[in-house]
Target: Ferredoxin
Amino acid sequence: MAKSLAELKAIRDKKVNEINLRHGKNGYRVVVGMATCGIAAGARPVMVKLMEEVAANGLNDVTVAQTGCIGSCRLEPIVEVYDGEGNKVTYVHMTPEKVTKVVEQHLTSGKVVDEYTMTIVDGKIISPEVKA
Model:
C-alpha cells in the first residue's frame, strides 16, 4: 500500500525525533558510506578509527552508523555528519588521520573542517582538492 507524502513526512519526523532522543538535541549522527565503492576506497579503517576516537573522547552524544552508497563514488570514503537539527556536512576522501581532526574540531567543538568537505556549485560537486 502506497503512503502519502504527509504519512512519509510523519514517519521521517518520528525517526529524526528518536535519533535526537538517543543522542540528545545537541548530539551528532555520523554516517560512513560502506558500499562496495566506499570499502574499496578505504572506508573500513575510517569507520574503525571514527568509532575509536568517539569512544576515546567520551562523546556519548554521538551515534556512528554505516550506510550504503552515498552516490559520489569518486569522492569515497565519505562521512556525513548530521547535527540534532538534521543539518548535514559531507566529508570526502576521508582517511583515519582526517577522522582525528574531524572528531577534535567538529564533533567536540562544533567547528566544521572545511578543507575536507565537498561543495556544490551550479549543481556540480567540487572536491576539496579543487577548492584549495
